[in-house]
């Protein structure tokens, strides 16, 4: 400052003649310079200059006018120049502002924004000022010209204020749009970056998830799975499907992002689209595969369920059928033992009934085997690999076939057996009939003969000899009949050998006939014997025919039951009729005599005996005793040589052998008791 | 005297004779003649009558020996007895008979 002040004072002195009134060092060094001094010095300058002014006024006027012209021309030139520059700048800048080609990256756009910001803060303000200046200059110029009565300034074409204004407007317009555009673009790019990143992220996540799914879905693991395994696979597939469904909106998101990227005109949108497309294609493919797998699994499940049902059906039907076959086999081989034609026939009928059920059984068998075939077919047609065995049944088709064949062979066998048996039973029946025919003849024949004999025995008219003749005739007939009985025995043997145990064609058994025959033989013999005995009695007792006849009539009369004998009441009545007055004791005695064996009945023989004893004159024991006494010369005993002397040798020996020793009073050695002997002879012994 | 009843009213009666032969009864019949062995006579007051033997009695055993039925056998058995003779007889018992001097059990 000091230096400058010094220079100023010097120069003013030199050129303006202003004395140096101030000291530079003083002014500088003094804290508060003297105001008045400075003002005085300065007014010198004023006066210097003012003084000069007038001097120059005239020259100045010319200079002023020229100068004004020069000024104005300069101003005009300046204006033109500035205007050109400005317009040039505008022309340059406007297209830059109008350039809406977006950059690819945000950083580039940001750069652009920065450039714009620079423009707005650095480049444009001076230009604004310039424009302002230009306007001011123009106005000043126009004023000056008007003041100085000069014509107004007319800028060259295109440089008019209006041109500048409109160009400036255009600039400002472009500017405004540009900033908006920049911001929009930047937002877009920001969004695009975000979206692209989001897309990448999601796509990657999705691709990770999707990898391998294709292989999994293409598995044919259901080919050889069982029903429960299929069901498990279906569950797993369901889970996968829901997973897939969950991923659906993720894929849609990805596609939406891609779409937005497309709309926002992402620079690398082709790659995005490609990736998106492959994702979508894969997605569709997965969807298709999933659907296919579901269908395959469901189809397989259904098939296996059908198979399972068939197996159940098989088990349900094959078990009873198997039982039936086993039962049939047993029944067909069932051993039978029969004794009548009817039994065989009922067995045959049962067998026929059984045979009638065979067609039904056969169709059942076919149905059951058909079930197995169906299962086979299903397995074949649908290519199911896996177990073809039935988990519900232990019965195999081979078993069924074998058993059925067995049944089929057993049926005719049984037919044969039954037929044989029927023939046998018919033969047996023939034997029975044969026997029965014979027996039914013989039985009554025997009966008739017995009756004949009984009748003959009771016959009262005719002689005993006549009876005897008749009986002998009967005997003859009977003997002649024997071959018939023998023949019957032969038939009976055949029957027994054939194991026939009954015969409904006759009530007579062989035993009946035998017994009857034997009884007949004994009866005829006994009856003949009785008649012989009666003849003997008659001859011995001297009963005349009339007496005999009488006896016979009585007997017949009192034989109330007409059975050839009298019971005790009959006999009692008979005795009473004959005049016997019997007490119980006496009657009992008599009963004892006539019925010693206590049979309760009195035979004709016994009756005759009783009657003749009472009436006949016979040798009694007493008479014989009397005879012996004579031989023993009145001794109570007899001696052996006395007997030998009087009786024929064999009779004497008989007596000697039979006579008991005499043990009464007066006995001697060798004395024989003829009394006891005699009574013994007559069936009596005195004790 | 022991009385046993069988079917039909026949009874078995045991009789004890004492005193020795002759006993006083007559036997008839026997197996030799295919007849039962019967008492046909009983002398009045004899030892048999005293013991209770009746006409019509069938001898079943003598001195506890069951008879085969032959008269000879019966005679021998009777003749072997000395002072006592035990008979079991079969008797039709429509009238129960209690001889007055029979032993009662």
Assign an overall shape of chain A. rod-shaped
Beta strand count of chain B: 7
The second-level CATH architecture of chain B is: Roll
Widest sheet of chain A: strand order? 1-2
List the total number of helices of chain B: 2
Structural class of chain A: mainly alpha
Oligomer: heterodimer
- What fraction of residues of chain A sit in β-strands? under 5%
H/E element sequence of chain A? HHHHHHHHHHHHHEHHEHHHHHE
Q: CATH top level of chain B?
A: Mainly Beta
Biggest pleated sheet of chain A: 2 strands, antiparallel
Low-confidence stretches of chain B: 95-105
Biggest interface between chains: A-B, 20 and 29 residues
Amount of beta strand of chain B: 35-45%
Rg calculated over all Cα atoms of chain B: 13 Å
Helix content of chain B: 10-25%
Average of pLDDT of chain A: 85
The helix tally of chain A amounts to 20
End-to-end separation of chain A in angstroms reads: 225 Å
Give average pLDDT of chain B, whole number: 79
Global outline of chain B: globular
Coiled coil (chain A): 65-92, 230-264
Protein name (chain A): EF-hand domain-containing protein
Keywords (chain A): Actin-binding, Calcium, Coiled coil, Metal-binding, Repeat
Domain EF-hand (chain A): 546-581
């Amino acid at each position: 400052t000091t230096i400058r002040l010094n220079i100023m004072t010097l120069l003013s002195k030199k050129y303006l003649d202003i004395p140096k009134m101030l000291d530079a060092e003083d002014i500088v060094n003094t804290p508060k310079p003297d105001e008045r001094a400075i003002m005085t010095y300065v007014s010198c300058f004023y006066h210097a200059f003012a003084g000069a002014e007038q001097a120059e006024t005239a020259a100045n006027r010319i200079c002023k006018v020229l100068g004004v012209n020069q000024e104005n021309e300069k101003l005009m030139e300046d204006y033109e120049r500035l205007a050109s520059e400005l317009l040039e700048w505008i022309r340059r800048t406007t297209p830059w502002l109008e350039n809406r080609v977006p950059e690819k990256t945000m950083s580039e756009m940001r750069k652009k924004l920065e450039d714009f910001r620079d423009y707005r803060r650095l480049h444009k303000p001076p230009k604004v000022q310039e424009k302002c200046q230009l306007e001011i200059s123009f106005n000043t110029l126009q004023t000056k010209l008007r003041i100085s009565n000069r014509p107004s300034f007319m800028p060259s074409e295109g440089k008019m204020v209006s041109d500048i204004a409109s160009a400036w407007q255009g600039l400002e317009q472009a500017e405004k749009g540009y900033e908006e555009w920049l911001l929009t673009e930047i937002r877009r790019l920001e969004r695009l970056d975000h979206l692209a990143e989001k897309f990448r992220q999601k796509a990657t996540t999705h691709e990770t998830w999707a990898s391998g799914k294709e292989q999994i879905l293409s598995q044919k693991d259901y080919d050889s799975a069982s029903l429960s395994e299929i069901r498990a696979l279906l569950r797993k597939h369901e889970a996968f499907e829901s997973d897939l469904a969950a991923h659906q909106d993720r894929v849609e998101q990805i596609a939406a992002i891609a779409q937005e990227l497309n709309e926002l005109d992402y620079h690398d949108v082709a790659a995005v689209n490609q990736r998106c497309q492959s994702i979508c294609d894969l997605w569709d493919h997965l969807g298709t595969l999933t659907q296919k797998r579901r269908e395959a699994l469901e189809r397989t499940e259904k098939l296996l369920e059908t198979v399972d049902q068939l197996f159940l059906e098989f088990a349900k039907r094959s078990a009873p059928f198997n039982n039936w076959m086993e039962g049939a086999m047993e029944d067909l081989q069932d051993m039978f033992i029969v004794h009548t034609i009817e039994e065989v026939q009922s067995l045959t009928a049962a067998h026929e009934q059984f045979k009638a059920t065979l067609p039904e059984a056969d169709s059942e068998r076919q149905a059951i085997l058909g079930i197995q075939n169906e299962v086979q077919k299903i397995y074949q047609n649908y290519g199911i690999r896996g177990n073809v065995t039935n988990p519900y049944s232990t019965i195999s088709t081979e078993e069924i076939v074998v058993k059925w064949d067995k049944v089929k062979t057993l049926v005719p066998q049984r037919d044969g057996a039954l037929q044989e048996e029927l023939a046998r039973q018919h033969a047996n029946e023939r034997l029975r009939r044969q026997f029965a025919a014979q027996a039914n003849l013989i039985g009554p024949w025997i009966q008739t003969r017995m009756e004949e004999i009984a009748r003959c025995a009771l016959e009262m008219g005719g002689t005993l000899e006549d009876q005897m003749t008749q009986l002998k005739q009967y005997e003859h007939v009977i003997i002649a009949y024997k071959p018939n009985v023998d023949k019957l025995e032969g038939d009976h043997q055949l029957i027994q050998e054939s194991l026939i145990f009954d015969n409904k064609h006759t009530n007579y058994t062989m035993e009946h006939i035998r017994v009857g025959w034997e009884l007949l033989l004994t009866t005829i013999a006994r009856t003949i014997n009785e008649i012989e005995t009666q003849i003997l009695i008659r001859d011995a007792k001297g009963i005349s025919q009339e007496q005999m006849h009488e006896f016979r009539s009585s007997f017949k009369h009192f034989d109330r039951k007409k059975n050839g004998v009298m019971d005790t009441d009959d006999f009692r009545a008979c005795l009473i009729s004959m005049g016997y007055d019997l007490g119980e004791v006496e009657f009992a005695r008599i009963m004892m005599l006539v019925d010693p064996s206590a049979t309760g009945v009195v035979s004709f023989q016994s009756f005759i005996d009783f009657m003749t004893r009472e009436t006949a004159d016979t040798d009694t024991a007493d008479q014989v005793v009397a005879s012996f006494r004579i031989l023993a010369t009145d001794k109570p005993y007899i001696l052996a040589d006395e007997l030998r002397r009087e009786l024929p040798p064999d009779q004497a020996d008989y007596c000697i052998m039979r006579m008991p020793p005499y043990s009464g009073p007066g006995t001697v050695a060798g004395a024989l008791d003829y009394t006891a002997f005699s009574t013994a002879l007559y069936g009596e012994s005195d004790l | 005297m022991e009385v046993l009843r069988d079917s039909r009213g026949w009874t078995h009666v045991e009789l004890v004779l004492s005193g020795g032969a002759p006993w006083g009864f007559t036997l008839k019949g026997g197996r030799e003649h295919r007849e039962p062995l019967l008492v046909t006579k009983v002398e009045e007051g004899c030892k048999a009558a005293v013991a209770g033997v009746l006409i019509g009695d069938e001898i079943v055993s003598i001195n506890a020996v069951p008879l085969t039925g032959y008269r000879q056998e019966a005679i021998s058995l009777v003749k072997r007895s000395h002072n006592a003779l035990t008979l079991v007889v079969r008797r039709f018992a429509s009238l129960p008979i209690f001889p007055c001097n029979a032993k009662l059990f």
